[in-house]
Amino acid sequence: MVRAGRERYHWIMSTAKNIAPAAGESARPATTVAAGTLKVRVLRAGLDSQVSKDDRVAVEAPLEFQLHHPALGMEPASFGATMRTPGDDEWLAAGLLYGEGVVNHPSDIEVIESSTRRPNVINVRLRPEVQVESQFAARRFSAGSSCGVCGTTGLDAAIARAAATEIVDSGRTDLSVLLGLPERMRREQSKFGDTGGIHAAALFDFSGNLLTVAEDVGRHNAFDKLVGENFMAGRLPLSNRIVLLSGRASFELVQKALRAGVSILAAIGAPSSLAVNLAVASGLTLVGFLREAHCNIYSNPQRLGF
Question: Cα(265)–Cα(249) distance, rounded to whole angstroms?
Fold first, then answer.
């Protein structure tokens, strides 16, 4: 039983196996056709026909974050693990650590690099002057690709910290600009076009110009990649910026937006009650159900010109 379980584990974790063989076929190698996607063989089945064909799926693989700092000892300490789509792992690590308050400036990070000895491990070396003891103790987690605050031991503290943030009024954008953003983001989602199964977070200015887009099988990972890229480039806070989410707007994503200083957070899907309350209290403009012709504005509509 144990041996069979180990064999199945290695089979599942290997990207060199087909996860969906066609009827009458044995599993055969699948190939990575683009960063973050995998080619597999499927059986397209209907009531009157069955066709074997190639398809693409989004890659989901674990990533462990290893922190290096004198206060943590001679050996690196694990900050946890998440399931993500490989690619931009350095930005994912930087965005996560910034969102958790472990780092506050790009200079707090000495180096971020993938491990040469262990696959799916990212090493983050912090500068000695960074204070990590209290933050590190509060956040050791193992998260799925849909998880945001998984493992946070002080949830009340996390909510209070987010609620203490205030987004000040500093500009306006036209509603017509906002309504045009989903189509612009969709055109840049290369992995979604390949697989139909991956999330995105896109950054726009108030004129509707697309600045960057990040994709990942996890909603929170996509946001962390976007924040991490801008954090390392010294472009935070994201004042007079719009972040568009391909899915729903949960508390965790509003929390991340506040930490990054985003002015408008828009989502294709719905917000949660806690997300709305937090946005109202913090001055963030929160938009849901964003479509070509209409949207719902849940908080602080003063940033939108009608």
Answer: 8
Catalytic site residue from 147, 175, 270, 274: 147
Please check whether residues 99 and 38 belong to one and the same domain: no
* pTM attached to this predicted model: 0.85
Closest by Cα among 234, 224, 233 to 243: 224
- Residue 242 shares a structural domain with residue 269: yes
d(CA 15, CA 58): 11
pLDDT band for position 17 (50/70/90)? very low
Q: Averaged over 26-47, what is the pLDDT? A: 68
**pLDDT for position 12:** 65
Which domain covers residue 197, as residue numbers? 173-305
Handedness of CA 273, 275, 280, 281 (dihedral sign): positive
Q: Known catalytic residue: 295?
A: no
Closest CA to 227 of 103, 45, 74, 51: 103
Query: How many domains does one find in the chain?
Result: 3
Torsion of the alpha carbons at 97, 101, 104 and 109, rounded to the nearest 10: -30
